Amino acid sequence: MKEQIHALRQVIKDDASNVDTTEALESFRNTYLARKGKIAALFEQMKDLPKEDKPWAGKELNALRTETEDLYASLEANVGGESGDANSIDYTLPGRSYHFGHRHIVSQTIEDIKAIFKNMGFSVVTGPEIETDYYNFESLNFPPDHPARDMQDTFFVTPDIVLRTHTSPVQTRVMEQQEPPIRAIMPGKVYRNEVVTARSHMQFHQVEGLCVDTDITFADLKGTMVHFAKQYYGESLKYRFRASYFPFTEPSAEMDITCYLCAGEGCRVCKNSGWLEILGCGMVDPNVFKSSGIDPERYTGYAFGMGVERTAMLRHGITDIRLLFENDLRVNKQFY
Ligand SMILES: [Zn+2]
């Protein structure tokens, strides 16, 4: 009996090393562990053993059965694992798609504007959103009690500190720190104490621009603005400059392009004029040069500014500015 158990243990081990398919595994179980298997057959022979031999034989056979069951379980894990993996992958299924984030239309518009001006040699400068009255108004030729201050509804932090109402104060900061020639654009957030409607918001973005050098003329300003507009809105666009007024430029102008909706025919969006304003601009007022320490007898320059949201809305035909702040993914996903 002892020899038989020993021999069977050896056979089982040898046999197990050859099990590498589910069929071989099933045959292994049938040969050794099934009710009519070889281990069961040895248990069957126990009844013919002398009484004193039965305890150790039972113990040995139980041990062999446990070993074989463990062996079977590990074989099953190996064979089953491999074939299971192979069967569970369906190569005909479409791949999983991942959703990548992307820039918001406002950031994207700022990037697009920056890229066009960078190509013309402009650098990018930023300034603080909380400004002093001096930088936001006074240095830009808005003296105290000047009626032009009423053009912009201001959020006051203290009587002398405001949330900047435009990016123009960065002009003064740049001119204080840098000798001409200066060519810089200044993107950033601005704040106005206005009722939020489809057309206006109390927070929006502007891109300011400044060019200062000797012999800068209005022709340089027009050429630069037209180049920008054609790059951004399309080569075939029609444009016009209209005389306007800003305290910090003299003369001042606004630039219009043909209405995107009616192509100049006149519609509700362009208030039947056929034109849409895209930016304000002008020659830097000598008073602004003086407050920034630049000699207006020696230097001239131009400045311009545009609303980023307005720019994005004009280019993409968005009719409600609030859509740009609500972060509705159904809107945001449309603009890559
Ligand atoms: Zn129109």
Descriptive report:
- 40% of the residues lie in helices and 20% in strands.
- It is α+β, with helices and mostly antiparallel strands and 336 residues long.
- Helix 1 (2-16) packs parallel to helix 4 (54-88) and helix 2 (22-33) packs antiparallel against helix 4 (54-88).
- The protein folds into two domains: 2-88; 105-332, BirA Bifunctional Protein, domain 2 (2-Layer Sandwich), CATH 3.30.930.10.
- Bound molecules: zinc ion.
- Zinc ion binds next to loops.
Low-confidence stretches: none
State the secondary-structure class. Answer: alpha+beta
Listed once per kind, the bound small molecules are:
zinc ion
Shape designation: rod-shaped
Main beta-sheet annotation: 7 strands, mixed
Helices and strands, in order, run as HHHHHEEHEEHEEHEEEHEHH
What does the average pLDDT come to? Answer: 90
> CATH class of the largest domain, please?
Alpha Beta
Radius of gyration: 41 Å
The fraction of residues assigned to DSSP E strands is 15-25%
CATH topology of the largest domain: BirA Bifunctional Protein, domain 2
* CATH architecture designation of the largest domain: 2-Layer Sandwich
Number of strands: 10
End-to-end separation: 81 Å
List the SSEs and their pairings.
Blueprint: H1 2-16, H2 22-33, H3 38-45, H4 54-88, H5 105-119, E1 123-124, E2 130-132, H6 133-136, E3 156-158, E4 161-163, H7 169-177, E5 182-191, E6 203-213, H8 218-233, E7 239-246, E8 249-258, E9 275-284, H9 286-291, E10 300-307, H10 308-316, H11 329-332
Parallel strand pairs: 1-5
Antiparallel strand pairs: 2-4, 3-4, 5-6, 6-10, 7-8, 8-9, 9-10
Helix pairs in contact: 1-4, 2-4, 5-10
The site of zinc ion (ZN) has 8 residues, from loops.
